[in-house]
Amino acid sequence: MTLCTTCQLPSLTQFASPELVGPIVYEGHDRADDPAWRTSGAVTLADYARWCSHLCGMACLRMALGPDAPSLFELRDGALKYGGYTEDTEGTIRGLIYAPFAAYVRDVHGVDATVHRHLALDEIPALLDAGRTVMVSVHFEIRRPERPAPGRGGHLVLITGRTADGGLHFHNSSGIDARTRTAELSRSQFEPFFAGRGVSLGRPGGAPTTR
């Protein structure tokens, strides 16, 4: 039996053209050669190309907010103002930084956001059963779970539901096809990629929970 109250959330990619995700992440396709870049909300192609590979967290938020969510780069701009991302003197982009991101989500979007600096897989089902979605840090190679996990963390996916036997439904904004963008993995498949941290999100417009 599948237990999922949020599976109707949109499945979105952090790159403007879903069909280019695979070529970009595995074949060196130029991110600036994305004909749909304007749909991201970026003002310039250069800004899109520089930032799109860093916006898995904004894609997760956009999915969690539902079909009326702002554009990817509007969310980026809001998170930047709160310090959810930083840029050093060399221009290196750092983030997503969870605490200021959560403050941004609560203040601007009215959605309860709780930072989980230490999150066990066993804690996620209760969050889902409470009607929350959960952004978690995983290795980006979770899109190819049949291979050994090369590490943990560095990429964010949105967990939307669970199965009765402990499997997890999640949306992956850097999935390379429909199966890996809206995915389901068993606990044992998911765990080797999981970094043990994340941010849980309440329903848009819902009452806040105690943190």
In short:
The chain is α+β, with helices and mostly antiparallel strands. It has 8 helices and 9 strands. The strands form 2 sheets. Strands 1, 4, 5, 6, 7, 8 and 9 form a 7-stranded antiparallel β-sheet that branches. Strands 2-3 form a two-stranded antiparallel sheet.
Low-pLDDT runs: 1-6, 207-211
Query: Could you please say which CATH topology applies here?
Result: Cathepsin B, Chain A
Question: How many domains would you count in the coordinates?
Answer: 1
Task: Count the DSSP helices.
Answer: 8
Give the structural class.
alpha+beta
Distance between the first and last residues' Cα: 30 Å
Q: What is the CATH H-level superfamily?
A: Cysteine proteinases
Proportion of helical residues: 25-40%
Element string (H = helix, E = strand): EHHHHEEHEHEEEHEHE
CATH architecture verdict: Alpha-Beta Complex
Number of DSSP E strands: 9
Strand content: 15-25%
Q: Radius of gyration from the CA trace?
A: 16 Å
Question: Can you tell me the overall shape?
Answer: globular
Could you explain how this protein is built, in words?
It comes from Streptomyces flavofungini. With 211 residues, the protein is of the alpha+beta class. The protein has one domain (2-201): Cysteine proteinases (Cathepsin B, Chain A, Alpha-Beta Complex), CATH 3.90.70.10. The chain has 8 helices and 9 strands. It has helices spanning 21-27, 45-51, 56-65, 72-82, 98-109, 124-129, 178-181, 187-190; strands at 2-3, 85-87, 93-95, 113-116, 133-138, 155-163, 168-171, 182-185, 194-201. Mean pLDDT is 92; it is low at 1-6 and 207-211.
